[in-house]
C-alpha cells in the first residue's frame, strides 16, 4: 500500500472510531446497534459571495465512500455517526473577446476546483416507520488536499493556442468545512438501505467561497436493524 493511501486509511479508521464513540456514549444493546459501509454519488456546488454579489460555479459530480454506526434509543429515535471520504469542488468556464490593433482575440478559461476531504457527519434520526427515517445533523469536513486545474485557450486569425496547468491551493484553503444537513433514509428488511441528504456549506473555505453538496447513496446495515 502506498504511504499516502496508508495514511488516508489510518485517518479514516481513527475518524470512524471517533464517530463510533460519539454514537455509543450510551449503554449499547446489540438489538439497537447497527453499523456498516455506505457509498454513493455527490453533486458538489461552490458559491462565492461578497459586496452584495454572488457567483455560482458549475456543479461537479463526485463520489463518497465510508462507514457508519447507528444507535436506536427506541422505535422512533436514534443517532448516527459516519466517516466518509469525498472529493468535492466546482467548475468554472469564462469566455471573453478583445480586439487589439484590429485583430480580434477570443479567450476561454476553464478552472476545476478539486478538494479532497474526510467528512464526519453526526445526526439525530426520527423513524417515521420501521423502514423510513429522517435525519438532521451537521457534517464536519476536514479538507486534506486542494488544487485548481486550469486550461486557457486563445484563438485569433484562425490560429489557436492552449495552456494547461495545476496549482496547489491547500495553504490558502480553510481546513474545516462545516455543513448542516437534512436527509431521508429507506431501509429494506434485509438491511440494504438508500439515503439522500443535502449539506449546506456555512464555512468560508477561501475568502467568501462556500461549498454545499447533495449526496445520494446506498449502504448495508449489520446488527439489530
Automatic annotation (TrEMBL):
Residues 29-206 form the Outer membrane protein beta-barrel domain. This is Outer membrane protein beta-barrel domain-containing protein. Pfam families: OMP_b-brl_2. SUPFAM superfamilies: OMPA-like. It comes from Chryseobacterium aquaeductus.
Amino acid at each position: 500500500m502506498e504511504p499516502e493511501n496508508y495514511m488516508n486509511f489510518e485517518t479514516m479508521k481513527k475518524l470512524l472510531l471517533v464517530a463510533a464513540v460519539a454514537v455509543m456514549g450510551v449503554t449499547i444493546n446489540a438489538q439497537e446497534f447497527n453499523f456498516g459501509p455506505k457509498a454513493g454519488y455527490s453533486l458538489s456546488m461552490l458559491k462565492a459571495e461578497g459586496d452584495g454579489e454572488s457567483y455560482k460555479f458549475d456543479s461537479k459530480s463526485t463520489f463518497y465512500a465510508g462507514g457508519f454506526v447507528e444507535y436506536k434509543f427506541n422505535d422512533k429515535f436514534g443517532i448516527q455517526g459516519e466517516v466518509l471520504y469525498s472529493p468535492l469542488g466546482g467548475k468554472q468556464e469564462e469566455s471573453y473577446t478583445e480586439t487589439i490593433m484590429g485583430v480580434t482575440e477570443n479567450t476561454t478559461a476553464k478552472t476545476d476546483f478539486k478538494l479532497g476531504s474526510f467528512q464526519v457527519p453526526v445526526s439525530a434520526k426520527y423513524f417515521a416507520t420501521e423502514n423510513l427515517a429522517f435525519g438532521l445533523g451537521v457534517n464536519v469536513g476536514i479538507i486534506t488536499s486542494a488544487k485548481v486545474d486550469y486550461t486557457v485557450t486563445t484563438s485569433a486569425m484562425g490560429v489557436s493556442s492552449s495552456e494547461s496547468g495545476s496549482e496547489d491551493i491547500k495553504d490558502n484553503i480553510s481546513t474545516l468545512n462545516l455543513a448542516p444537513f437534512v436527509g431521508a433514509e429507506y431501509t429494506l428488511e434485509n438491511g440494504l438501505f438508500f439515503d439522500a441528504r443535502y449539506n449546506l456549506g456555512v464555512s468560508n473555505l477561501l475568502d467568501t467561497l462556500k461549498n454545499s453538496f447533495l449526496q445520494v447513496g446506498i449502504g448495508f446495515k449489520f446488527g439489530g436493524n
